[in-house]
Amino acid sequence: MSIRFLVVAMGCATLLGCGLHSDYQRPELDLPATFSSQAQVPLQDKWWQAFNDPALNRLVDDVLTANPDMALAGIKLKQAGLGLELAQGNQRPGINAGLGANTQRPLDRHFDTRWTGNAQLGLNYELDVWGRLSSATNAARWEADATAEDRDATRLMIIGKTLESYWQLAYLHQAIASGEQDLANQRDVLAITERRLVAGAVSRLDLLQAKQSLAGKQASQLELMNLQEAARNTLLLLLGRSHGELPVAPSSLPDTLPDPAPGLPAEVLSRRPDMRAAESRLRGQLAEADSTRASFYPTLSLTGSVGSSSNALATLLQNPVGSLGASLTLPFLEWNKRQQTIDRANLDYDAAVINFRKQLYQSLVEVDNALSDVRIGREREQRLQEQLTLERESARLARSRYLAGATGVQNWLDEQARLRSAELAWLEQRRSLLVAQSRLCQALGGGLHP
Q1: Which of 332, 360, 438, 443 is the most exposed place for a label (fewest CB within 10 A)?
Q2: DSSP, residue by residue, 178-235
Q3: How far apart are CA 24 and CA 135, in angstroms?
Q4: Is residue 206 part of a domain?
Q5: What is the CATH number of the domain that holds 310?
Q6: How many domains does the structure of the chain reveal?
Q7: What pTM value is reported for the model?
Q8: What is the pLDDT of residues 397-415, one digit of tens each?
Q9: Which among 28, 85, 14 has a CA at the least distance from the CA of 356?
Q10: Quick check: is 359 in a domain?
Q11: pLDDT in tens, 427-441
């Protein structure tokens, strides 16, 4: 009677079990019409090469090889792969084996010792009639896919940090070199002022003003050198080191800038690794919910074993005894617990949907902001270049007027200070524009054609 019941239960489960897998539907998204109609652009894997800087390319390769965050991302990916293998293993028959032995000896007859041994080999297999195990495997597979995308997102972030630190170091090197020239000009002003003071052409006030200006420039130069050391240490950390020499020593920012590829924000759905990871986890959460629901349906397991026992080692495996069995568990009888657990799984999926939609909208805003930064940054750089050209001419005229005795030294010092500020402003804007282009590429998942 029990065998017949199990056969009937297995047949019913086979007929009904196929209905527990949910079909994934991407959540409805409020995307601008001009974005959603665009064709996808493939990811540019080495987009930073578009900046045409061989030293930068070598640095990125070194960082990707040595960075500890990349190593951790690789370990997490291996862990996710092992999790998938374990889930797949649950769908295959399980095998167990055992050997045992014991001895018996009466306390009053030490010579009458008996030895007994046993051996057993077992096999168990759960029929996945409701899809619980396959749903758990799907969830593990989606998590493994998401973890692979996490590694790519980490790679993209580290590349971005490397580029920004490299350009920061180049900016500071260029600013310090420019500062040295400015200091040389200040010393010339001081020497000229001292000679004119001896000749009675200027007052001692002019001399004090020249010395004050030189001291201020020297203090600013020291601050730049301090920032340069901090930038070096940042690059060392990206290389997984705490000290030593850098493999590169950038001396200046690029003279020309590449144009962004014609990517549009809607492409973040297919190009950004963090968005691909979010959608994989969303699909994995749906599979988890399926597995949770299926776990409250009857579980049918088949078991088999072969064993033997003997009081002689030589005959231990000569008298095997086999057995077969089946068991049916009925977890659905715990109705309240079942419903609460299923509701919780459904809420987890709803939360994943909200997180996916939130992350997508945030990505669109990041792309829009980066596009604006690049567009306005280019225009601002042009204006600062114009200002720098005019300041150079103003400084030249101020020097001529001072040497002709038409003005005091302060006017010349003021023009030199404005020229220095204009030089630093243009350099900083060039660095900011490079960073904006890099962040646009990251926001698009890669967007410069090398």
Answers
A1: 332
A2: HHHHHHHHHHHHHHHHHHHHHTTSS-HHHHHHHHHHHHHHHHHHHHHHHHHHHHHHHH
A3: 13
A4: yes
A5: 2.20.200.10
A6: 2
A7: 0.77
A8: 999 999 988 998 999 999 9
A9: 28
A10: yes
A11: 999 999 999 988 888
